[in-house]
Amino acid sequence: MCVMQDTPLKAIQMLWVNLIMDTLASLALATEPPTEELLNRRPYGRNMALISRTMFKNIFGHFIYQLTVVLALLFAGNVPHADSSAIFVQNVQWLLSSPDSWA
Fold it and tell me: How far apart are CA 96 and CA 80, in angstroms?
């Protein structure tokens, strides 16, 4: 059983990952030109929900998926045989790849 022998990322590495990911996300949002439809739409009301039902379903679905992957890696990460371990690593890499490539 592989329950946290060592941390996969140190604190400074996590900070760098966060910095890079946030920078790329903000660049993606900042470089997208506004559409005419977006500029002409009326503002949302003060009492409107910030998270729609569809957004909540997507967030909850991703939460369940990520929790499953993390717990599988945490508790089944140390496979005893070399051949099994290589297959496990390939399966995990496939799971963590883009869902578009699952077809």
Answer: 22
Overall pTM surpassing 0.90 (yes/no): no
pLDDT tens for the chain, residues 1 to 103: 455 566 667 888 888 888 888 888 888 888 878 788 888 888 888 888 888 899 999 999 999 999 998 888 777 766 555 555 566 677 777 667 666 655 4
* Residues 6+ positions from 18 with CB-CB distance below 8 Å: none
Encode burial over 30-50: b for 16+ CB neighbours within 10 A, e otherwise. eeeeeeeeeeeeeeeeeeeee
In whole angstroms, what is the distance from residue 95 CA to residue 98 CA?
8
Q: How far, in Å, are 18, 31, 38, 90 from residue 28 at the CA level?
A: 15, 6, 17, 31
Cα(87)–Cα(76) distance, rounded to whole angstroms?
13
- Return d(Cα 2, Cα 80) in angstroms, integer: 10
